[in-house]
Amino acid sequence: RRRAARHPRRPHPWAAAEAMGAHERALVLLLFSAASTGLIYVSSVYSQALKDTLDLSQDDIETISLSCYLGGLFGFLPGRVSDVMGARKTIVFGGGAQGLLLFVFWLVAKKLVVVPAPLPLLCVLTFLQYLSSGCTVAAVFSALSRLYGENRGVVVGMGKAYVGMVGAIVTQIYHGIVPSASDGAAVDFILVTGVASLALCWIPALLLD
Description:
mainly alpha
């Protein structure tokens, strides 16, 4: 008796994900978390709206931007936090802090919280945002270095380039979708970045082994 020809089994929809190695899976999750740090470089989207809503000058906007980069002088602090707390907890902390700070920044920019002199507060918030994103960066790239050993230079270099592109990509997508946004919509983009920071850090952290 002839045997009926067997039909090849269809691959399970999640077969690719299941077949993905532990290192590759961790790489994808860690890069998702790293994407949150690129969101601090999208201030060009709402800088004009800040000038209009809070009556700031161009010098004020540049001062706010400068306070972000001053955080780099304290870059050792996020690294120390990562060493003490570990990668997963540091990613959760960094994403949560960044999201909270962006939420407060949005409240001030939206004038839902009235501050007599908003410039100093916005500078402090921006400074702390840089440090919180630094926690995520430290955790992500230290974890990648441990995972990939001798190949860590290539992986970390690619990750750094990826983070740098995130801000530019998000900015272009926003302007493509909302080419002539009002000041209110531009300010609301700050809230969007805050929520995205939380999601990009907390969801991958839950899935990391």
